[in-house]
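Recall the central idea of this unit: under ordinary conditions, the amino acid sequence of a chain determines the structure it adopts. In this exercise we apply that idea directly, starting from the sequence alone.
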Amino acid sequence: MTLLACGINHLTAPVDLREQVALSPLQAKNALQELISIGAVNEAVILSTCNRVEIYSEVTDFNKVQQWISHNLALPVDPYWYFHTERNAVSHIMRVASGLDSMVMGEPQILGQMKDAVNLAQEVGALGSGLQRLFQRVFNVTKQVRTDTKIGANPITLGFAAVTLAKRIFSDLSKRNVLLIGAGDIIELAALHLFNQGIKRFIIASRSLSKAEKLATRVHGHWIPMGDIPLYLTDSDIVISATGSELPLLGKGAVERAIKARKHRPIFMVDLAVPRDIEPEVGSLEDIYLYNIDDLKTIIDESKQCREDAALHAEGIIELQAEHYIRNIQSLNASSLIRQFRAELNTIAQQEVQRASVRLEQGVDPKIVIEHVCHNLLNKFSHAPCAKMKQAGYDGRLELLAFARQLLDIKD
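Accordingly, the structure predicted from this sequence is:
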């Protein structure tokens, strides 16, 4: 059984490829069931976010997993997918959960997304004792990283990066109208950044009335249903979208009509969703400034320098904890072997005790019985090791004899 962590992310594949393999929770459920059914995967977790799709699994046949990925996720394995096994897999998962592998270094949302992925795997029945043990350690290490380092201090979020770009288009954001599509964590952070810039008018389009109303209250905005987006697009100077929709919510035609009605006053649009909410063709329209999640990377990269020391400290914690985890798993394997060995010895000893009891009841001298028990136990306990050592000597396997000397603690 091999621990495997594989996937694609913002470093290995652009957004137009990532959105091809992005999975909704329902699709992730189906994918987990299919993956378990191929007979090469005992347990698995699938994490799908705007920046990555990753599979964490216990596998018996690596090639079958690769074939399943190529066939079911509509993207060739090479050159976009990466594969980590055993200790490297543990280290990678810990890095992801801690935000070290994120576009926004230290961002906290990824931990919640990973916990959701683990819960989903448990619902489907794809989570076994091996991955349960692993993720319990991962979450503990993530907590340690965030407690002992400053990796999460003042991260430049996607929302902040979007606002930074907006300020390059509009000199005074306070006079602009904002249309937010979605009401999740990313949109909430963007809304708060914009609110702090003095923006007064927010329209929040969302399928979730409760989330939208909660966010609207914080920024003094109001909620609209998704179907009303075209009615409010004409008055919107800034549009930021991040939903879980599998299909685009804004097409070129709707935006073209809006920009004509605005008499070509510019619209700044940021699509933070994967798959994308806004058709890429919208970016070709005059007076439309459309950015996707990958376009924000330059702004985010500028903020990484200040957290490099914290990242180095975090990497050290993760490498140490990954090594400890693998060694603990190896010790569990040794413990199982030790229990089996002791059980076999105990069976032999109990058999000799029973024979000795019978002979004592027959009146045989106790001294003779004890000597006979010791003789039999010595022969039975040493028979298999001695036979193996003789065979090793006959075969010239000196390394096995040296190992036997170490294992049995035989002094020179």
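The longest strand covers residues 2-9.
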